[in-house]
Amino acid sequence: MKKITFLTIIMLMVSGLWAQPKYQHYTIKSGYIEYKVTGNSSGTKKMWWDNYGNMSRTESNVVTVTKIFGMTNETKEERIYVTKKNQFWDANLVEKVYQTGIYDIEENLAFYQNMTEAEKRAFEKQMLDQYGGSIVGKETILGYECDIVSVMGAKSWVYKGFVLKTEASIMGITIVETAIKFDQNIAVPASKFEPYPGVQYEDIGKVEVPGMAPVTATTEVTSSTPAPTKTSAPAIKCSYSTFESIIKGTKLGGYKMVNVKDNTSNYSAMFVGFTGALTIMGTSKSELSKNTDLSLFESFNHNGKSHYYGTVPDGTAIIVSYPEKDLYVMYIFNPAKSQDDMLEITDKFGF
User: Fold this and answer.
1) Is residue 165 a contact partner of residue 157, using CB atoms and an 8 Å limit?
2) Can you tell me the distance from the alpha carbon of 149 to that of 63, in angstroms, rounded to the nearest whole number?
3) Cβ contact 235:284 at 8 Å
4) Average pLDDT for 299-315
5) pLDDT digits (tens, 9 = 90+) for 70-102
6) Which of 19, 54, 201, 293 could be bridged to 100 by S-S, CB 3.0 to 4.6 A?
7) pLDDT band at 53 (very low <50, low <70, confident <90, very high)
8) Whole-angstrom Cα distance, residue 337 to residue 317?
9) What is the enclosing helix (H) or strand (E) of 156?
10) At how many degrees (to 10) do helices 6-15 and 117-130 cross?
11) Which of 216, 103, 240, 121 is nearest to 168 (CA)?
């Protein structure tokens, strides 16, 4: 399920969205935005909203092709996300996962709503500075002048709280979402705000903050991770269930696991946090040798295991060998981390 991250909240506060009266998520009463998705992904995203965002519907139909260490994977996303006041319904039509729950973002941002305008501007600057962000310029999209907000490698073009363009790049994967239509204050049929029908939704209870499109730069990168298949990787002696159990059983401070997949010739997982992302891939020696030249990496022994350290596009990586399982595990960090910082994290995984 997509959830708005603290990074997203920073962008929204800077854009002025959260300076609006309570319960008005957006600054425009109703409308429709359509995005063209390009880069490693291709497809469309559409969003309708009414009552200043208290009702919204987002439809995603996107195919993403990723290539990490020479291994190519294709992911299809077909998703319908509906919100009414503080309840959401998330229908993932590809993975057939259907969830509903409630949120209360006003409580999380009450401290901000109660600030004076001067205090809000100071707080926004503090948040941007803390995460290395800034407003880097202005540009006109669809005739609307936007602030360009850059935070943690992602850029968003923001007009009155609406993101009309997003560029995000992580580990060589680039995703661009550009608004090609932006209709404001239109009549939106009530049927648009009905959950996707004919499925059983799992009630996951209260979540910290809502998944509000269109500002989804962080979660979109998450959705570009490799697609699941029904076939286990036959060359890996470590079973997928073991890989999955270790991934889900490992707690990393400052990170949250968002994905774990079986991709035929490899396994993969992704963690995201305020400081960046961690992608993990498990594969066999034969598969690794097809795509990766270990001689290009710095080799060393650590905790009785062979390790390989090197740089990758937009980050750094450590590869750990488990010969008894014919398993190589690649830990890819974006942005780059020092070898010692990486080992502190990779040591937590008990493969």
Assistant:
1) yes
2) 26
3) yes
4) 84
5) 566 777 889 999 999 888 999 999 889 899 988
6) 201
7) confident
8) 9
9) strand 154-159
10) 140
11) 216
Q: Are 146 and 158 in contact (CB under 8 A)?
A: yes
Q: Output the six-digit token pair for 217.
A: 């730069």
Q: Which domains does the chain have, with CATH numbers?
A: 6-223 (2.50.20.10), 240-346 (3.40.1000)
- Tokens at residue 277, please? 């992302």
Residue 257 token pair? 């696991």
Collapsing DSSP to helix, strand or coil, 313 comes out as: coil
Q: Which two tokens stand for residue 37?
A: 């998705």
Nearest residue to 196 via CA among 348, 93, 114: 93
CA–CA distance from 316 to each of 132, 139, 177, 336 (Å)? 19, 33, 26, 5
Q: Which of 37-46, 69-78, 282-291 has the lowest mean pLDDT?
A: 69-78
Sheet architecture: strand order including 276-283 = 255-262, 266-273, 276-283, 327-334, 315-322, 305-312, 298-302
What would the DSSP string read from start to end of 210-267? ---TT--HHHHHHHTSPPP-SS--TT-SS-HHHHHHHHHH---TTEEEEEEEE-SSEE
Alpha helices, H only, the chain: 6-15, 105-108, 110-113, 117-130, 217-223, 240-249, 285-291, 339-346
Q: How far apart are CA 135 and CA 127, in angstroms?
A: 12
Which residue's entry shows tokens 């959260």?
18
